[in-house]
Protein backbone atom coordinates (compact mmCIF):
# COMPACT_ATOMS: atom_id res chain seq x y z
CA UNK A 1 0.00 0.00 0.00
CA UNK A 2 2.41 2.61 -1.18
CA UNK A 3 1.60 6.22 -0.59
CA UNK A 4 -1.01 5.76 2.10
CA UNK A 5 0.91 7.00 5.09
CA UNK A 6 2.97 9.72 3.48
CA UNK A 7 1.37 12.49 5.50
CA UNK A 8 1.00 14.48 2.28
CA UNK A 9 -2.76 14.63 2.44
CA UNK A 10 -2.70 18.20 1.21
CA UNK A 11 -1.33 17.07 -2.15
CA UNK A 12 -4.05 14.52 -2.73
CA UNK A 13 -6.03 14.60 -4.90
CA UNK A 14 -3.43 16.38 -7.04
CA UNK A 15 -3.85 20.05 -7.96
CA UNK A 16 -5.58 20.77 -11.23
CA UNK A 17 -3.86 23.01 -13.77
CA UNK A 18 -6.50 25.61 -13.17
CA UNK A 19 -6.27 29.30 -12.38
CA UNK A 20 -9.40 30.21 -10.50
CA UNK A 21 -10.56 33.77 -11.17
CA UNK A 22 -12.56 35.02 -8.19
CA UNK A 23 -14.37 38.35 -8.46
CA UNK A 24 -14.91 40.17 -5.16
CA UNK A 25 -17.95 42.41 -5.31
CA UNK A 26 -19.26 44.00 -8.51
CA UNK A 27 -16.16 43.88 -10.72
CA UNK A 28 -17.02 45.03 -14.26
CA UNK A 29 -17.85 42.13 -16.58
CA UNK A 30 -15.66 43.56 -19.38
CA UNK A 31 -12.67 43.56 -16.99
CA UNK A 32 -13.28 39.94 -15.93
CA UNK A 33 -13.78 38.88 -19.54
CA UNK A 34 -10.59 40.59 -20.75
CA UNK A 35 -8.44 39.14 -17.94
CA UNK A 36 -9.95 35.68 -18.51
CA UNK A 37 -9.21 35.75 -22.25
CA UNK A 38 -5.66 37.09 -21.88
CA UNK A 39 -4.53 34.84 -19.02
CA UNK A 40 -6.24 31.76 -20.49
CA UNK A 41 -4.61 32.29 -23.85
CA UNK A 42 -1.16 33.03 -22.39
CA UNK A 43 -1.05 30.24 -19.84
CA UNK A 44 -2.44 27.59 -22.21
CA UNK A 45 1.20 27.03 -23.30
CA UNK A 46 1.77 25.52 -19.84
CA UNK A 47 -1.40 23.45 -20.00
CA UNK A 48 -3.31 25.83 -17.75
CA UNK A 49 -6.82 27.14 -18.15
CA UNK A 50 -8.69 29.80 -16.26
CA UNK A 51 -12.03 29.15 -14.59
CA UNK A 52 -14.46 31.59 -13.04
CA UNK A 53 -15.43 31.10 -9.40
CA UNK A 54 -18.54 32.53 -7.76
CA UNK A 55 -18.50 36.20 -6.77
CA UNK A 56 -17.44 36.78 -3.17
CA UNK A 57 -19.36 39.59 -1.46
CA UNK A 58 -17.26 42.58 -0.35
CA UNK A 59 -18.91 42.27 3.08
CA UNK A 60 -16.77 39.20 3.71
CA UNK A 61 -13.79 41.50 4.06
CA UNK A 62 -15.19 44.01 6.56
CA UNK A 63 -12.64 42.72 9.08
CA UNK A 64 -9.85 43.81 6.73
CA UNK A 65 -11.05 47.43 6.67
CA UNK A 66 -8.90 50.08 8.32
CA UNK A 67 -11.17 53.08 9.00
CA UNK A 68 -8.23 55.44 9.61
CA UNK A 69 -6.79 54.70 6.16
CA UNK A 70 -10.13 53.94 4.50
CA UNK A 71 -8.40 50.99 2.89
CA UNK A 72 -8.37 47.20 3.23
CA UNK A 73 -5.31 45.21 4.25
CA UNK A 74 -4.30 43.01 1.30
CA UNK A 75 -3.14 39.91 3.14
CA UNK A 76 -6.63 39.27 4.55
CA UNK A 77 -7.84 38.57 1.01
CA UNK A 78 -5.17 35.94 0.41
CA UNK A 79 -6.27 33.68 3.26
CA UNK A 80 -9.91 33.72 2.11
CA UNK A 81 -8.88 33.01 -1.49
CA UNK A 82 -6.60 30.21 -0.33
CA UNK A 83 -9.56 28.39 1.23
CA UNK A 84 -11.43 28.58 -2.08
CA UNK A 85 -8.40 27.32 -3.98
CA UNK A 86 -7.90 24.43 -1.58
CA UNK A 87 -11.50 23.35 -1.94
CA UNK A 88 -11.32 23.43 -5.73
CA UNK A 89 -7.79 21.95 -5.92
CA UNK A 90 -6.79 24.91 -8.07
CA UNK A 91 -3.08 25.51 -8.75
CA UNK A 92 -3.67 29.27 -8.40
CA UNK A 93 -6.39 31.66 -7.33
CA UNK A 94 -6.56 35.20 -8.69
CA UNK A 95 -8.94 37.54 -6.89
CA UNK A 96 -10.00 40.87 -8.39
CA UNK A 97 -11.53 43.62 -6.28
CA UNK A 98 -12.53 47.24 -6.70
CA UNK A 99 -11.64 47.92 -3.05
CA UNK A 100 -8.54 50.00 -2.22
CA UNK A 101 -5.78 47.84 -0.71
CA UNK A 102 -2.68 48.54 1.39
CA UNK A 103 0.05 46.69 3.20
CA UNK A 104 2.05 47.82 6.21
CA UNK A 105 4.74 50.27 5.16
CA UNK A 106 3.06 51.03 1.82
CA UNK A 107 0.52 53.75 1.02
CA UNK A 108 -1.31 51.42 -1.30
CA UNK A 109 -0.81 48.27 -3.37
CA UNK A 110 -2.02 47.40 -6.85
CA UNK A 111 -1.92 43.77 -5.84
CA UNK A 112 -0.37 41.12 -3.65
CA UNK A 113 0.56 37.48 -4.07
CA UNK A 114 1.88 34.56 -2.05
CA UNK A 115 3.46 31.57 -3.78
CA UNK A 116 3.02 29.29 -0.77
CA UNK A 117 -0.68 30.11 -0.49
CA UNK A 118 -1.00 29.88 -4.30
CA UNK A 119 -3.08 33.04 -4.30
CA UNK A 120 -3.03 36.58 -5.64
CA UNK A 121 -5.25 39.62 -5.35
CA UNK A 122 -5.45 42.60 -7.71
CA UNK A 123 -7.16 45.90 -6.87
CA UNK A 124 -8.54 47.94 -9.75
CA UNK A 125 -9.17 50.94 -7.48
CA UNK A 126 -6.08 52.84 -8.71
CA UNK A 127 -6.02 51.41 -12.22
CA UNK A 128 -8.89 53.43 -13.69
CA UNK A 129 -7.77 56.69 -15.33
CA UNK A 130 -10.51 58.59 -13.47
CA UNK A 131 -8.63 57.97 -10.21
CA UNK A 132 -5.88 60.28 -11.55
CA UNK A 133 -8.36 62.90 -12.76
CA UNK A 134 -8.12 61.72 -16.35
CA UNK A 135 -10.90 60.98 -18.81
CA UNK A 136 -12.37 57.46 -18.68
CA UNK A 137 -10.47 55.08 -20.99
CA UNK A 138 -11.79 51.55 -21.00
CA UNK A 139 -8.90 50.15 -23.06
CA UNK A 140 -6.28 51.62 -20.73
CA UNK A 141 -8.16 50.37 -17.69
CA UNK A 142 -8.33 46.85 -19.18
CA UNK A 143 -4.64 46.92 -20.14
CA UNK A 144 -3.57 47.96 -16.63
CA UNK A 145 -5.68 45.25 -15.00
CA UNK A 146 -4.24 42.59 -17.32
CA UNK A 147 -0.69 43.73 -16.49
CA UNK A 148 -1.27 43.64 -12.73
CA UNK A 149 -2.95 40.22 -13.03
CA UNK A 150 -0.03 38.79 -15.02
CA UNK A 151 2.39 40.32 -12.50
CA UNK A 152 0.72 38.82 -9.44
CA UNK A 153 0.29 35.43 -11.14
CA UNK A 154 4.02 35.53 -11.93
CA UNK A 155 4.66 35.83 -8.18
CA UNK A 156 2.28 32.93 -7.46
CA UNK A 157 4.38 30.82 -9.85
CA UNK A 158 7.61 31.82 -8.13
CA UNK A 159 8.87 34.80 -10.14
CA UNK A 160 10.63 37.62 -8.27
CA UNK A 161 10.67 41.26 -9.42
CA UNK A 162 12.59 41.91 -12.62
CA UNK A 163 14.95 44.85 -13.29
CA UNK A 164 13.74 45.12 -16.91
CA UNK A 165 11.35 48.10 -17.00
CA UNK A 166 9.38 46.61 -19.91
CA UNK A 167 8.89 43.24 -18.23
CA UNK A 168 5.54 42.69 -16.53
CA UNK A 169 7.45 41.48 -13.45
CA UNK A 170 8.99 44.94 -12.95
CA UNK A 171 7.79 46.47 -9.67
CA UNK A 172 5.19 49.21 -10.11
CA UNK A 173 5.80 51.98 -7.64
CA UNK A 174 3.21 54.11 -9.39
CA UNK A 175 0.82 53.89 -12.31
CA UNK A 176 3.57 55.34 -14.54
CA UNK A 177 5.60 52.15 -14.06
CA UNK A 178 2.54 50.06 -14.91
CA UNK A 179 2.00 52.04 -18.11
CA UNK A 180 5.67 51.69 -19.16
CA UNK A 181 5.78 47.92 -18.85
CA UNK A 182 4.35 45.37 -21.27
CA UNK A 183 1.78 42.77 -20.30
CA UNK A 184 4.29 39.96 -20.96
CA UNK A 185 7.20 38.31 -19.14
CA UNK A 186 10.66 39.13 -20.54
CA UNK A 187 12.68 36.18 -21.97
CA UNK A 188 14.54 35.71 -18.67
CA UNK A 189 11.34 35.60 -16.59
CA UNK A 190 9.56 33.41 -19.14
CA UNK A 191 12.41 30.90 -19.02
CA UNK A 192 12.20 30.81 -15.25
CA UNK A 193 8.40 30.49 -15.36
CA UNK A 194 8.65 27.54 -17.75
CA UNK A 195 11.14 25.87 -15.44
CA UNK A 196 8.91 26.44 -12.38
CA UNK A 197 5.77 25.18 -14.11
CA UNK A 198 7.55 22.33 -15.90
CA UNK A 199 8.66 20.98 -12.57
CA UNK A 200 5.08 20.69 -11.40
CA UNK A 201 4.17 17.21 -10.18
ZN1 LIG B 1 5.33 42.43 -7.41
ZN1 LIG C 1 11.54 39.93 -16.51
In terms of DSSP E residues, the strand content is 15-25%
How can the largest sheet be summarized?
Answer: 5 strands, mixed
* CATH superfamily membership: Collagenase (Catalytic Domain)
CATH C-level class is: Alpha Beta
Order of secondary-structure elements: EHEEEHEEEEEHHH
The radius of gyration computed from the alpha-carbon positions, rounded to a whole number of angstroms, is: 17 Å
The fold-level CATH name is Collagenase (Catalytic Domain)
Strand order of the largest sheet: 2-1-5-9-8
Gap between N and C termini: 20 Å
Give the count of structural domains: 1
Structural class label: alpha/beta
Net shape: globular
| Unreliable residue stretches | 1-5
Number of strands: 9
How would you portray this structure in words?
The protein is an alpha/beta fold. It has a single domain, classed as Collagenase (Catalytic Domain) (3-Layer(aba) Sandwich). The protein is built from five helices and nine strands, in the order βαβββαβββββααα. The strands form two sheets. A five-stranded mixed beta sheet has the order 2-1-5-9-8, with helices on both faces. A four-stranded mixed beta sheet has the order 3-4-6-7. The longest helix is centred in the C-terminal third of the chain and has 19 residues, at 138-156. The chain is globular, with a radius of gyration of 17 Å. Bound molecules: zinc ion (2 copies). The site of one zinc ion has 4 residues, from α3.
Question: What labels describe this entry?
Answer:
single chain; 201 residues; alpha/beta; Collagenase (Catalytic Domain); 5-stranded mixed β-sheet; globular
Amino acid sequence: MWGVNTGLKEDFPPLTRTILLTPIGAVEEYILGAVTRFVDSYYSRFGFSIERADVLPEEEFLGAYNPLRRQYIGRAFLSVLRDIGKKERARAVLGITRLDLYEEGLNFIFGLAHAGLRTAIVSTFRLRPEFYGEAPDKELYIERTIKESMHELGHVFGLPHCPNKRCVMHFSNSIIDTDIKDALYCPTCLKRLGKNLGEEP
